[in-house]
Amino acid sequence: MTPTVRPHRPLSQELNELLGGLRPEDRLSLNDVFLRTEGRGMFLFIIVLCLPFVTPISIPGISNVLGVVLILLGIRLAFGLAPCLPPWIGDRPLPPGFQKVLRASTKVIRILERWARPRKDKWLNRPAARLVNGGLLTLMAVLLALPLPPLIPLSNTLPAYAILFLALSMMEEDGVLIWVAYGVAAFTCGYFYFLTDMIVMLVRKYAEPVLNWFGGWL
Predict the structure, then answer these.
(1) pLDDT tens digits, residue range 148-176?
(2) CA–CA distance, 77 with 37 (Å, rounded to integer)
(3) Dist. CA 166–CA 185, nearest whole Å
(4) 170 neighbors 41 (Cβ within 8 angstroms)
(5) How far is the CA of 54 from the CAs of 23, 50, 121, 151, 214, in angstroms?
(6) What's the pLDDT score for residue 218?
(7) How confident is the model at residue 4 (pLDDT cuts 50, 70, 90)?
(8) What's the predicted TM-score (pTM) here?
């Protein structure tokens, strides 16, 4: 017997159906959204968390907090765990105004769905691919969460774009766009390697003479 393949439905459609069935007094939690969209709402949440960093100038300090949340989600994705957040954050009722945020997000998702769609996606749902993609998203989240000075250019922007493309590719099961995400992630790793090398070089150039000078007085 040939197994029944569930047709891919746009996330924007699922969100519209979810929001359309809500009454004014109904209160959603993030875990409710994840559950009712069969886990795909988690990718939307990841994308929303990346939006503050898509421009070179972002608010200092928030990357550390949001990066930790993204790390938790990336680990769950990598190991195929249930798409949810810990109860202390995932089960808390969202403020009523958040429904407006979700409705606005569906408009953004519709735009993204025009060029992100299911194609060459058979391998994306394999455990090995899920482990690699979730692990890569986690690595990018770790780089985003690093407490680096805001003066360092693109230190938040590059990891955010890598996470955004990874989440969008997995959300829409796009086996072509995922390679763009891999490219951005590889460039991000190279950029951070360059930063690390520069920092080590500066420490050797300026810190070692100072330490040697102090050592001469001891």
Answers:
(1) 876 788 888 899 999 999 998 988 888 89
(2) 15
(3) 9
(4) no
(5) 34, 7, 26, 16, 44
(6) 53
(7) very low
(8) 0.77
Q: Which tokens in the block code for residue 65? A: 């907090």
pLDDT digits (tens, 9 = 90+) for 74-118: 998 899 887 777 888 788 887 766 666 667 667 777 777 777 778
Q: Which of 145, 147, 148 is nearest to 160 (CA)?
A: 145
Distance of CA 154 to CAs 55, 74, 192, Å? 9, 21, 10
Residue 191: what residue type?
Y
Six-digit token pair at 8?
């891919």
